[in-house]
Amino acid sequence: MNPVNIAATASAAASTPFSDASSIRARPRSVIADLYRAGGTIERACYVLAAVMVTSGVVHLAPAAVIGAPWSGPVSLRKAVTFGVSFGVLLALLTAVTRSTRSGPLLRRWLLGALALASVGEVLAATVLGWRRVTAQTVTAAPLDVALGRSGAVTGAVLVLALVGCAALSTRPAPDTPTSMRLAVLAGHLGLLVGSAIGVTMIVRSVIAADDAAEVVITSGGGVSLVPAHLLALSGVVVLPGLARTLTKSRLTERRRVAAVALAVAGQAVLTGVVAVEALAGIDPLAPVQAPLPPTVLAATGAVALLAAATWTAVSRVRGR
Q1: For residues 264 and 243, is the Cβ–Cβ distance under 8 A?
Q2: pTM score over 0.85
Q3: What end-to-end distance do the CA atoms of the chain give, in Å?
Q4: pLDDT tens digits, residue range 68-81?
Q5: Residue 224 near residue 278, CB atoms below 8 Å
Q6: Would you kindly state where each structural domain of the chain is located, as residue ranges?
Q7: What is the greatest pairwise CA distance in the chain?
Q8: Which of 62, 158, 170, 309 pairs as cysteine with 118 (C-beta 3.0–4.6 A)?
Q9: Rounded to whole angstroms, how far apart are CA atoms 267 and 110?
C-alpha cells in the first residue's frame, strides 16, 4: 500500500493505493490516516471496527497478566485475544487491498460489509463465551450461550463466502498495479483460502469431538495440532503484500522486485504445505527432531527462502533511502 499525499492526490489514492510510487516517503501513521480519509463510508466503518477489534484483543491480555485468568484450556480468554487481533488486522488489510481491484463499488461494499459483520460476530462470540467460561462446541444450558455457539456457524459461512469473494477480486487488479504487488496479493489471498479451509476443518473436528480437550488443541486425525498450519497459511496475506509494498520504495527494478516476491511466495507455500501435510499425517511440525528428515529439510528450505526474501527486501529498502 503506497503512501499518498492527501493534500495533493486524495482522488488518486482512492483508486490506486498500490500503484508504484517509490519516490513517495511517508510515515506509517500518515499512510493509515490517508487511507481512512480517502475511503468511503463502508471503508471507514471497516477501519474503525478493525481498530476496535484489535484494541479488544490487546486489552484482553491484561486479565491473564493481572488477575491470573487462564490463558490455555477450552474456557480461556486466549481466543478473545487471538480473534480480536487477527480479525481486526485481516479486516483492515482486505479493506485496503481490495481498493486496488477493478471491482464495482456496490459489489465491494457488500463484500466488505459481510466481512465486517462476520468478523465482529466471531470476535464477539469468542469474547463473551470466554468470559462465561463455556465453549462454542459444548454450550447446552443458557440460551445466550446456545445462541452464541450456533451463531459461529452462520458467521463462519458468511466469512468464508466473503473471503472467497475478496480472493476473486484479487485476480482483477487495477491496471497500474505493479506486477510484484499483483503476485503478492494473489498469493496472499490463495493462502487465505487455504487457511480458511484448515480453519473449517478444525471447527468441524472440534464439533465432532464435542469435548473440552478438543476445542483448544483442535487436532488432526493423528492428534497433532492444525493451528501452526492455519496461522502460516493466513499470514501470507499480511506478509507478502507488505513485502511487495516495501520493495516499491527500493531502487530495484520491477523484474527484481518480482523475483524477490516470487522467492517469498515459494518459501511461504513450501513451509505451509509441509507443516499442513505433517499435521494431517500425525507428525508434530513443532518437533522437527522427531519428524522424518525429508519433510524437515523441505520445511527448512521454505523457511530459508522466506527469510532470504525478507533480507533482500530489507537491504534493498535501506539502500533505496
Answers
A1: yes
A2: no
A3: 18
A4: 655 555 556 777 88
A5: yes
A6: 40-177, 193-321
A7: 62
A8: 158
A9: 34
- Report residue 150's pLDDT band, with 50, 70 and 90 as the boundaries: low
Nearest-CA neighbor of 83 among 121, 126, 114, 118? 126
Cell numbers 501452526: residue: 228
What single-letter amino acid sits at 191? G
What is the rounded distance in angstroms from the CA atom of residue 223 to the CA atom of residue 310? 33
Burial class (CB in 10 A: 0-12, 13-18, 19+), 300: middle
